[in-house]
Amino acid sequence: MIYDALFGKPLISLIVVGFAGILVWYFLSSQRPTTRLVVQILFFGLMTLILVGSGIEPHRFQGYQSEDPQALLVVLAKSLWWVHLAWAVIGFIRLYLVLEGSPREARLLQDLVIGVVYIGMALSILAFVFGVPIGTLVATSGVIAIILGLALQNTLADVFSGIALTLGRPYVIGDWILLSDGTEGRIVESNWRATHILTSANNVVVLPNSFLAKLGLTNVSRPDETHLLVLTIRIAPTRMPALIRQVMLSALTSCNSIVREPPPVVALKGLDATALEVELQFRVTSPSQRVTARNEVLDLVYRHCKSAGLILAVPPAANILTADLPTEENARPPSVTPLALIEAIPVFATLTSDEKQKLAETTTVRQFRKGDVIVQEGEMLPSLMMVRAGIIVARREGEERGRFAPGDFFGETGLLAGMQEICTLEALTPVTVYEIAQKAFAPLLTERPALAEEIAGALAGRAERFRDGAARPPEQAHNVHAILKTIRTIFRA
């Protein structure tokens, strides 16, 4: 019965099977390419079986008269067979033509091959179904091809440039690139005509492939995304260059936003009567971190210079007399007293001058040698400590979580909430701190609620800074909430 249904009227059966295959393929989800390919192969195989069984050869032109009642059925049947053959081949291409396991980068090449398949299908239908002499058609279409080529030369240039970029692979989707015209951003799409670049300003720049192929291109994401930054600092020559270089290196060492390996470099670039020019070279994890790292480095350079008594040099274009320049003999750099440090810390900005003076008078100086442990993880510091000079590293369970530089403070968890430190604090260099005892600080908390809020906010910000790519420890979040709860208790007292 099945044999009679298929081969009794083979042309009608083949047409029915062909259209049924089109409907089934249309309703299958594009998210299941393997299933679609299997369905295409099954219908194509069944159509081939019907054609062979009925003695029709789809790859040969069999002459027939236009008045033949079956002529239209033969044309339709053979055309459907060639369409299904093309779709089966395209299914293989979509599924298996992949460049190095990256289907998104292979899309342009896939589209090119698929275009060739469709052209071959159209020519085959013309030759084997309608009997059109393809050789003569191609020869007579040369003039038309020339006209079209001239009219579409820009589009064709984009297409072939896109093919060259895809095969050469100077970048892949997701890479951060820098072009010689100044365009910079991450590749988000590459198609036949253009490449789409997402810039740091969150704009998408669309560049024609022919234009992109002519530009010099730097792939910042290879071999990895670590990015070198260079900052030039001018310091007044009031100290020996070796000392200035050491201060700049300390500023980079205390930075939490830069890459530790390879270590940052400080290069002395020039020296004259007005300034010692220093070049700071450091790396960040990705180009998106450049602004954050540059801001932190500049802030730390200022703080370390102030701590070490260095003076920033005047700009090269400034008109000053040589006699007015500071020298090693007459320079009077500002001294970093407890009062000066308190005035420089933003959280104390709400205090009056008298309150700052009284707080400074209660400070004591403590010094630690390199490698000294200031406080162990789990211990409590009942006083507030402000870093006067040096670098302190914070470690949790042996893993570094952040660093303190001159102007930073710690011990607020014990001072405000009587809680333990979540990190071990160790002197990375010789360290000098100013310590303020709890009995001197407590009256200010009751009189200045904003001060306690600022310190609690600074602690929350430090938790984010010490996260270092990992989830914030639950104890840290608990400490922040406990401090805020303690503050509210103080307010109600």
UniProtKB/TrEMBL annotation:
Compartments, record wording: Cell membrane
InterPro entries: cNMP-bd_dom, cNMP-bd_dom_sf, cNMP-bd_ion_channel, LSM_dom_sf, MscS_beta-dom_sf, MscS_channel_2nd, MscS_channel_C_sf, RmlC-like_jellyroll
Record GO terms (molecular function): mechanosensitive monoatomic ion channel activity
Coiled-coil annotated residue ranges, if any: none
Membrane-topology annotation of the record: Multi-pass membrane protein
Keywords for this protein: Cell membrane, Membrane, Transmembrane, Transmembrane helix
Nucleotidyltransferase listed as a keyword: no
CC annotations in GO: plasma membrane
Transmembrane segments: 6-28, 37-56, 79-97, 109-128
Keyword DNA damage: no
Residue ranges constituting the Cyclic nucleotide-binding domain according to the UniProt record: 347-445
Pfam families in alphabetical order: cNMP_binding (PF00027), MS_channel_2nd (PF00924)
Protein name from the UniProt record: Small mechanosensitive ion channel
